[in-house]
Amino acid sequence: MSNNLFVALREAFPQDLDAVAVETDTGLNYSWRDLERATAMLANLLQSLGLPRGARVAVQVDKSVEAMMLYLATLRAGYVFLPLNTAYQSAEIAYFVENAEPAVVVCSPKNFGWVSKIAFSAGTHYVFTLDAERSGTLLERAAHCSDRHVPAVMQPDDLAAILYTSGTTGRSKGAMLTHNNLLSNALVLKDYWCWQPGDVLIHALPIFHVHGLFVALHGALINGSKMIWLSGFDAKLVLQKLPEATVFMGVPTLYVRLLAEPGLSHDSCRNMRLFVAGSAPLLMETFTDWQQRTGHTILERYGMSETAMLTSNPCRPSDGERRGGTVGFPLPGVALRVRGDAEQDLAQGEIGGIEVKGPNVFKAYWRMPEKTKEEFTDDGWFKTGDVGLVDARGYVCIVGRSKDLIISGGYNVYPAEIEGYINDFPGVAESALIGVPHPDFGEVGVAVLIAKTGVQLSAEAVLAALKAQLANFKIPKKCFVLPELPRNTMGKVQKNLLREQYKNLFC
Ligand code: MLC
Ligand code: AMP
Distance, CA 273 to ligand 1 centroid (Å)? Predict the structure, then answer.
């Protein structure tokens, strides 16, 4: 028996392989047969390279159906997919490539110069290009490959993907996810979210993170459901497509932006069955506004790169109501506990660290055994770094994070990383990055820093230097040069006081 995730997804393709599987915002239609053939060709190309077992295929390309098919082809051929945010710049990419040592790198043609330089010097043998208009060397080469391919036989514990998640200290860690991690989660969600024949998903999320790559994509594929594929999020376009769809998934920012569209109404959502939100806290205001404007109750769920989905509000009324301000119940098969500082189990209603176990929990961090050990308890529970409680009715509520992390528009920004770059700026003595509320992104980073004695620092110059080095979503939205930073008696910077001071900067 093949435990290849691709095989399970393909088994769900509808009988009519000529039906539309993906409709794009550029007016293209891809049939299920197209997915089958193109993934075979790409898988044959990868296999023709003679890559070793477990080889990584690192991909930093704009969203396209071909990019999605490259993911499926990597699974199909038995290699390990490593998606990279398109906003990452050279220093960020260099770290991932040097750390993961991919055998193949696929990048945008416009980035070939600098990406290939990094890749070849890290020992990568093959660098291909792919752009959103279906051109580039990857497809040119695949065009010569057969459209028949027998999927690689995998063991459940074999790696399917590595997702890099930044560390609160030090460098990013690659979470190793297996075929079984992803398949078990997809099957649970198919049932728990009541995927039905005839469902149509609007896919508007990026495909380099868990939400767009796994939750949305696997959800549609494992139900044989058509996707309306948007190359990026555009509120007006989503609104226009809503009447043709039944399922939508988004980070809270997408819901905030849709609510700003005057055309959003009960009528525009008349055919919709399910709205799913996650990746960041959904404000109660967004939850209730959405109910009023559309008549639909958003289903909020909670997950992580290391675990895929962990908890979810119910879909079926018989499983309970969807409660705003909560992330629902642990999914079937997921065990969740809340623990105190003394590592004792806490009672319902008590706030502590959330720990989880289940078939969805990742195998380990790539080549970081000590980090893996640190993040698991001795009895095998994964410490999420999220702080929360289980209420009297069994709903999980996330109230904060023990990890110093800012979630901005669904993207994670790790203050330690940004502070490191700021501290390298000539004349900076020390800095702190804090998250403050923001009406669009939920939370954004604000930098405060102090200058070395006698140095005049310009906040604009610091921001400009950061922009040249880091992905754009990591750039602090404001920067302040202060005479000193607030400290506790131990000399530690009191970020809570800074958050309080700047909490009304944008809201
Ligand atoms: C864009 N910008 C952001 C930002 N996105 N700033 C802070 N946070 C963000 N998330 C800034 C850019 O830096 C740029 O600034 C300006 O906005 C315009 O950039 P853009 O790329 O044109 O923005 P836009 O297309 O509007 O993107 C916004 C967005 C995007 C919300 C559509 O951020 C997005 O797709 N977010 C979803 C992320 C996601 O999928 N997360 C799932 C993680 S999985 P300037 O100054 O340069 O012009 C996970 C697990 C789980 O967490 O549970 O799901
Ligand atoms: P990532 O490392 O990008 O996968 O981000 C995972 C983190 O996103 C989790 O540890 C949570 O802090 C956060 N997260 C995901 N879903 C939710 C949610 N519904 N509410 C609050 N935080 C969430």
Answer: 26
